[in-house]
Write a structure and sequence with these properties.
- With 245 residues, the protein is α/β, with parallel strands linked by helices.
- The protein is 20% helix and 32% strand.
- The protein folds into 2 domains: 95 residues, Translation factors (Elongation Factor Tu (Ef-tu), domain 3, Beta Barrel), CATH 2.40.30.10; 127 residues, Nucleotide-binding domain of ferredoxin-NADP reductase (FNR) module (Rossmann fold, 3-Layer(aba) Sandwich).
- It has a 6-stranded antiparallel sheet with strand order 4-3-6-1-2-5, with helices on one face. The protein has a 6-stranded parallel sheet with strand order 10-9-8-7-11-12.
- The protein is globular and about 50 Å long.
């Protein structure tokens, strides 16, 4: 099951922040305005290297997956939590500030030659490239059945919570399940509880040996899920992984 990526042109762009949204108490999303008639092509799931142009203090770049669909021509969107000096500076940005984007990069992507049903499994901010895939399939009215299995620590840490409900209403082929791992005292949460385990996967995945799988999260998270999928008879070539942290 090999899919060949079409050649892509790597571009350097300095883009202005058009909108910053508090997705949760700890995660912000950033929309970067694209020039009119811009030819920025990427596959959903890919990432760009992001840096601060002409910054004397932070000269490094960080990889961020694109959350917006390639069909969205007005902006690129990324989402992140604050974990160090780079992201602390990101959290201090305001509309009109500039960031440098270079890309796209990465083999973790969906392309329309993939006709399989998709199972997207993410933890925390690992939902970022996955929602880009869901948005793209919805925008283009593709026929792939999509199941998102999403793990967060607490119910108030569900990134893109309202967006997931909107996408479910807009795309009859999409459904999702969310499980929380550290929110024992929250009596208002009526969804799943506990880590993603074999029981949860078997309850929510149909025809396991026929799907394409996209896993995104910490190395421990991704390795654990890969082990569970192997136990279900899923072959390695059916799985794409995006590991962060």
């Amino acid at each position: 099951m090999i899919f060949m990526q079409q050649p892509q042109q790597i571009k350097d762009m300095v883009l202005g922040v058009s909108e910053i949204i508090d997705e949760t108490a700890t995660v912000k999303s950033f929309k970067m305005e694209l020039p009119a008639n811009s030819e920025i092509n990427f596959y959903p799931g890919q990432f760009f290297m992001v840096s601060f142009p002409n910054d004397p203090e932070i000269k490094t770049a960080r990889a961020y997956s694109i959350a917006s669909s390639p069909q969205q021509k007005r902006y690129l969107e990324i989402a992140l939590n604050k974990v160090g000096p780079f992201t602390a500076k990101m959290f201090g940005l305001k509309p009109g500030d500039l960031l440098k984007f270079k890309g796209p990069y990465g083999k973790f992507y969906f392309s329309e030659e993939m006709k399989n049903s998709l199972v997207l499994i993410g933890g925390g901010v690992g939902i970022t490239p996955l929602i880009g895939i869901i948005r793209h399939c919805t925008d283009k009215n593709l026929g792939n059945k999509i199941k998102l299995i999403y793990s967060v620590k607490a119910a108030d840490e569900i990134i893109y919570k309202n967006e997931l409900e909107r996408l479910k209403a807009a795309n009859q082929n999409f459904d999702h399940v969310v499980t929380v791992t550290r929110d024992e005292e929250n009596q208002n949460w009526k969804g799943g509880r506990g880590r993603i385990d074999l029981v949860l996967l078997e309850e929510n995945i149909e025809n396991a040996s026929e799907n394409m799988y996209f896993l995104c999260g910490s190395r421990e998270f991704v390795n654990d899920i890969m082990g569970l999928l192997k136990a279900m008879g899923v072959k390695r070539e059916q799985i794409k992984t995006d590991v962060w942290g």
